[in-house]
Amino acid sequence: MFLRRFERYKNGKPHTYWALAESYRTAKGSRQRIVAYLGELTPAEKDGWAKLGQHLATNSPAAKSPADASPDAGSAPKPLQRTLFDPPRRDEPR
User: Which of 40, 52, 55, 67 is the most buried (most CB within 10 A)?
Assistant: First the structure.
């Protein structure tokens, strides 16, 4: 995860806004998604969010290599079940 900077001009003054973003890969290549919008930050807040982003990136399950994962019988992925929803019923005819 990393901090992404957005600059905007209001009344001729530059304003800097920040967002916590993460990178991920798709079939079409690397993409980034915004995890949290942080707004304007002081330098101390900016450093704190950057440290948190680094901590989350290094300790997330996606950051660990497949060799680190131990194959347990209980950790096998479960198949997705399809859930069907009925449309709401109306008491009165239209």
Answer: 52
E strand map for the chain: 2-10, 13-26, 29-39
Regions of the chain short of the pLDDT cut 50: none
DSSP helix/strand/coil, 83? coil
Listed in order, strand segments (DSSP E) in 40-87 are none
pTM for the whole structure: 0.48
Report the distance separating Cα 32 and Cα 9, nearest Å: 24
Residue 45, number of CB atoms within 10 A of its CB: 13
Please check whether residue 22 is in contact with residue 49, taking contact to mean a CB–CB distance below 8 angstroms. Answer: no
